[in-house]
Amino acid sequence: MKFIDKDLVSIQESRILMERAREAKGILSGFPQRKLDGITETVYQAISGYEKEFACLSVEETGYGCVEDEFRQLEGFPGRLMKELRGMQCVGVLSENAEKRTKDIGIPMGVAVVLCPAESPAAAIIGSALLCIKSGNAAVFVPDIRAVRTISRVIAVIKTAAVAAGCPEHAVSCLETVSDSGCKATVEHEEVSVILNLGVRKMLSACFAALKPVLYGGTGPSPVFVERSADIRQAVTDIIDSRSFNYGMMPGAEQYMVVDGLIAGTVKEMMIAEAAYFMSAEEESRLLSLLCPGGAEMDEEYIGKSAVWLAKQAGFELPAGTKVLVSEKRYIADRNPYARALRCPVLIFYIENDWMYACERCMNLLVQESKGHTLVIHSQDEEVIHQFAMKKPVARMLVNTPAVQGAMGLTTNLFPSMALGGLTAGMGVTADNISPLHLVYIRKIGYGVKHMEKPKSYGARNDLKQLLGELIRELNDQ
Prior knowledge:
Radius of gyration: 26 Å
Helix content: 40-55%
Strand content: 15-25%
CATH architecture of the largest domain: 3-Layer(aba) Sandwich
CATH superfamily of the largest domain: Aldehyde Dehydrogenase, Chain A, domain 1
Number of strands: 15
Distance between the termini: 80 Å
Largest sheet: 7 strands, parallel
C-alpha cells in the first residue's frame, strides 16, 4: 500500500486553492454591485430545498445538534439574511456628500479565508458565502475535520449556482484534504486579505500569526437577568427555548441565569413546567465529571447533546422531554467549573435581592467568564434596562428576547449573522455581528474646495506666544 503524506497533500491543495482565488479576486474586483447581487440571489435560491439534506448530513457527520433545529435554522436564517442584503450597497459608491464634496467607495478586501466550525456548519457556511459574494470577495473555506463532508457538499451546491450566474469558477472553493498543516498554510498564505474565523478557537494563534485582519465570531456563555417587572412566563419560555435550541451549542446562548429574589419562586416553578430539571449536588458532580474531566476543557464528544442523553451518560435519569439541566448556585467560586462556555443545555441559576445586586453579578460573570459576548435582560422597567446598557462591558445587549435568536438577528433588528463578534481581548477586530461591510475597506474621496493662503511674513518677530496665538485665531476663523 502506497503511503500518502496527508499534511503535504493538504498544504499543496491549499496553495493551489489560494492561487486560483487570487485570479478570481481580480475578476470579481471589476464586478459592479448589480452583478454581485444577481449572483448572491441565485445562490440563495439554489440552496432552497436542500435544508433537510444539509441538516441530516450535519448531525450525522458531526454528532452535534438536533436535526429538527438544524432544519429550522436553515429554513429561517438564510431568508432573514437575504432580506437584509437586498438593496445593500457594499462595493462602489457607498455614500456621497454633495455639500462637502466627499465620497465613500467600497473596495473588496480580496481573498477571505473562512475557518468553519463543526457546530451548525451548513448554516454558518451559507451565511459566510453570501457575505463574501455580496461584497465581491473570493472565499476559501477551511472545514473542521469533523464536518468535511457536510461543508464540502454545501460548498459544491453554492459553487455550482454561483458559476452558473457568472461568478468566476474559483471564487468559492473548499479545502478537501484537511490537516493542521494545511489549515495553517492557508491562513498564512500571502494572498490572504482577511480571515473570518467562525469560532475555531484552536486556529486563533495561527490567525494572529498571519498578521492579517481577523474577524472572530465565537461562542460566549451569556448571562440573562430576569427582573421583577418582566413578563415572567414569556421570559422563562424564551430562556428555555433558546438554551435548548440545537442542544445548547449556538453562539450567545444563555448559560447564567440571574433572577430577582422577589420572583425567584415563581420563575423556578415555571422553569420546571417548561421542562427544566434542577439537579442535586450529586447529579451535578456526576455531570461535571463527564463534561469537564479533571476540570479540563469541555470534552468535545458532549457538545450539542440533549439533556436526557447527557444525564444518562452521567448516571442519572431525567423525566422524558427534559430540555435543560439547571445548577442552582449562591456564589461565583474562585474555580468556577462553569466559567468556560458549555455548548450543551446547561443553565446556572443565581438569585439576587434586586436589580443592583443582579447588575454586579452580571458584571462579574461578563468580566470573569463571558468575556463580553452577549447579555440578555427581561424587564419592563426602562430605567433598569438603561442602567444595564450603560454599565455592562458587552458586545450586544438583548432586551426581552431569546439570546440565540436575538443575537443572530432573527427576533431583533441586529444584522442577521452566525458570526457574532465579542469583546474578548485578542479575539478579533470587531464586536459586531459580521456583515459584508466588514469584508470591504472604505476608500475616502475628497475634492478640493479651497486654496491654501500663502504664509504671512513675520519679519524678525520672535515672540513665540504671539505667533502661536495668531495661528490659532486664523485656524478658528477658517
